[in-house]
Amino acid sequence: MLILAIIATGMLIGWIAQLALGQGTRPDGQSLVVGVAGSFVGGMLGSLLAGDGLAIRPSGIIGTFVGAVVVIVVWNAVARRQA
Fold first, then answer.
1. What is the number of other CB atoms lying within 10 angstroms of the CB of residue 67?
2. How many CA atoms lie within 13 A of 3 on its CB side?
3. Strands (E), 20-81
4. Local structure of residue 26 (DSSP, 8 states)
5. Which of 12, 29, 39, 45 is the most exposed place for a label (fewest CB within 10 A)?
6. Per residue in 24-77, pLDDT tens?
């Protein structure tokens, strides 16, 4: 059940990160990918550094947002190099 919550929260936070960077108005496949990647990268790191464990807590949500923004920036940099 925790995995489903991480995926759902990751997609929502990924979409919010895209909105913050001005990259779209609707959730799409990229939202899912960057949200879940950001969740594992930033959320897990944020939760573990805050001592919250692997539960969904504010530290993990903030970490997920930061991780999703980082993943979007890297994704766009790689896409520009390939174009």
1. 28
2. 0
3. none
4. S
5. 29
6. 667 677 777 777 787 777 767 766 777 766 666 676 778 778 888 888 888 888
Query: Could you identify the residue written with the tokens 């990924």?
Result: 14
Q: Determine contact, residues 41/72, Cβ cutoff 8 Å.
A: no
Q: pTM of the entire structure?
A: 0.75
How far is residue 17's CA from residue 15's CA, in Å, rounded to a whole number?
Answer: 5
User: Residue 72 is which amino acid?
Assistant: I
Q: What is the CA radius of gyration of the chain?
A: 12
Half-sphere exposure for 24 (CA within 13 Å, toward CB): 12
- The size of the chain, in residues, is 83
Asked if 19 and 37 count as a contact pair (C-beta separation under 8 A), the reply is no
The pLDDT value given to residue 71 = 85
Output the pLDDT for position 35. Answer: 72
